[in-house]
């Protein structure tokens, strides 16, 4: 009986957590946003679309899987940036930890744009409630893929989707 109660308890209290990650936004037009980059200049998503696929990578300096994923995304960015591919790394670090973002990016030598979403307003627009969270847009700004979390090898699927979009 205790086991049944425990299972029931777990199910009902984990259901909202499971449900929040099931929001399927693929096929929708990406909501526009305007965020400041590390140089203090504003970047607006609608101004970035039209040339090729765009990868939005929601991450934070305190998130170890995010940092591992960024190493792989940097390789993809370097390989396809001259073919129309863009990467926007959107830091969800809060005001308390945002000071770590620029030194981290500089120490790694990353050249892709990094945007600051310190209040997570943009993350909420994309239902990015946990990090890392990946969103791939086609050249028209439509969401074609989303993924929560990172495990070594996830980047291979993302790269395949990017190459497919570049061929269209």
Distance between the termini: 57 Å
- Helicity range: 25-40%
Radius of gyration: 17 Å
Mean pLDDT: 90
For the biggest β-sheet, the strand order reads 2-1-5-4-3-6-7
Output the number of helix runs: 6
Could you name the ranges where pLDDT drops below 50 across 5 or more consecutive residues?
A: 3-22
Largest sheet: 7 strands, mixed
Strand content: 15-25%
Gross morphology: globular
**Can you count the beta strands?**
7
Look at the helices and sheets and give the structural class. Answer: alpha/beta
The SSE string, one letter per element, is HEEHEHEHEHEEH
Give the structure's gist in a few sentences.
This protein has 6 helices and 7 strands, in the order H-E-E-H-E-H-E-H-E-H-E-E-H.
Describe this structure in words.
With 168 residues, the chain is an alpha/beta fold. Helix content is 40%, strand content 20%. The chain has 6 helices and 7 strands. It has helices spanning 2-20, 45-48, 64-80, 101-108, 121-125, 154-167; strands at residues 34-37, 42-44, 54-59, 86-91, 114-116, 133-137, 143-148. It has a 7-stranded mixed sheet.
């Amino acid at each position: 009986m205790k086991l049944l109660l425990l299972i029931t308890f777990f199910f009902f209290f984990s259901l909202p957590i499971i449900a929040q990650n099931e929001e399927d936004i693929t096929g929708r037009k990406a909501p526009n946003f305007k965020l400041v980059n590390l140089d203090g200049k504003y970047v607006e998503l609608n101004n970035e679309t039209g040339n090729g696929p765009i990868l939005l990578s929601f991450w934070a300096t305190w998130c170890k899987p995010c940092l591992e994923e960024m190493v792989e995304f940097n390789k993809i960015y370097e390989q396809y940036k001259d073919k129309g591919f863009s990467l926007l790394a959107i830091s969800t670090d809060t005001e308390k930890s945002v000071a770590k973002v620029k030194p981290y990016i500089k120490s790694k030598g990353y050249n892709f744009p990094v945007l600051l979403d310190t209040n997570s307003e943009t993350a909420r627009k994309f239902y990015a409630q946990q990090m890392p969270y990946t969103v791939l847009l086609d050249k028209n700004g439509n969401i074609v893929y989303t993924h929560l979390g990172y495990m070594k090898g996830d980047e291979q699927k993302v790269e395949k989707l990017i190459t497919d979009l570049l061929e269209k």
